[in-house]
Design a protein that fits this description.
Keywords: Membrane, Transmembrane, Transmembrane helix. InterPro entries: DUF4181. This protein has one domain (4-12, 35-113). The protein is built from four helices and no strands. It has helices spanning 4-23, 37-57, 63-88, 94-113.
Length: 114
């Protein structure tokens, strides 16, 4: 698996910037500027705790287990982001950016890691 997992973070981040640039006109809105900022913070804190905690339970030296871990974590994180974008950023296309980035991340995992 080597460098493919850290590269996933880079690919998703760059994809978010590029897709956001093409889909969103003007300044992008943030969840932290809405009523959902506390749900956003608590949700990501819970997801991060679960992700880090699962690394102590899983066999991190098994490449197959780690592929599924990254796939599940990506779906959980970006799926949560998409839900918050859809709920709290009405009238924007931010949720579409998140969905497209999720698809790009899943394709990356399936092509490079599997």
């Amino acid at each position: 698996m080597g460098i493919s997992a850290p590269l996933l973070v880079f690919v998703v981040g760059i994809a978010n910037l590029i897709v956001g640039h093409f889909l969103i006109e003007g300044k992008r809105k943030k969840i932290s500027e809405t009523k959902g900022k506390y749900i956003h913070k608590w949700g990501y804190s819970i997801i991060a705790t679960m992700g880090i905690g699962s690394l102590f339970i899983l066999d991190i030296f098994d490449p197959n287990v780690m592929k599924w871990f990254w796939l599940g974590l990506l779906i959980l994180i970006i799926g949560f982001q998409t839900l918050l974008d859809w709920k709290y950023l009405k009238g924007t296309k931010e949720y579409l950016v998140s969905l497209i980035v999720l698809v790009i991340g899943i394709i990356y995992i399936l092509v490079v890691m599997f």
